[in-house]
């Protein structure tokens, strides 16, 4: 079908831990871990153990059939080898991935876990639980059929600075696909992504 691709896990490798896109994602993980463990806002009763060592520079991204970002890995990796090994295990897990919903502001978001460890987190916020659940179910089907990129795409600080954004070298990037475009560090276009191989 025209415009349809095999789902793909690709990797972004940052060059500085202070790059804003990386810091925002780490902040999302921190907020989600609190939302999941706080009984006042928890939408899942399962006990989840969030990683505490997100000190790396590599983030995995699940791209769907239309090459739009669907989810990101729940861990920030220190090496590409660890990132590829972990994402390959998630693909092999298939329907053993468990879906979870959590409050996100006035809406809902989701994540998938494997044996109590968060694996993938959604990048979009939804108004209803049903929409979030449908998105999570679709992501679980897509990750089971995904290929894994053999390399990472480096996001250099050049032109943007690690703590500030230079509008001349930045791209508009919506972190949550919520219609709120923000200036962000460079994100590769779909035609720059690796085709990848399974495993």
Structural features:
199 residues, alpha+beta, PH-domain like, 7-stranded mixed β-sheet, two-stranded antiparallel ribbon, 9 strands, 24% helix, globular, disordered C terminus
Explain how this protein is built.
Residues 188-199 have a biased composition (Polar residues). Residues 176-199 are annotated as: Disordered. The protein has 199 residues and is an alpha+beta fold. The protein has a single domain, classed as PH-domain like (Roll). 24% of the residues lie in helices and 27% in strands. The protein has 3 helices and 9 strands. The strands form 2 sheets. The protein has a 7-stranded mixed β-sheet with strand order 4-5-6-3-2-1-7, sandwiched between helices. Strand 8 (171-173) and strand 9 (182-184) form a beta hairpin. The two termini are 25 Å apart.
Mind telling me the C-alpha Rg? 16 Å
* Total of helices: 3
What is the CATH architecture annotation? Roll
User: Span from first to last CA?
Assistant: 25 Å
Instruction: Profile the largest sheet.
Output: 7 strands, mixed
User: Helix amount, in percent?
Assistant: 10-25%
Q: Strand order across the biggest sheet? A: 4-5-6-3-2-1-7
List low-confidence stretches: 164-199
Query: What average pLDDT do the residues reach?
Result: 76
Number of E-state strands? 9
User: Could you give the order of the helices and strands?
Assistant: EHEEHEEEHEEE
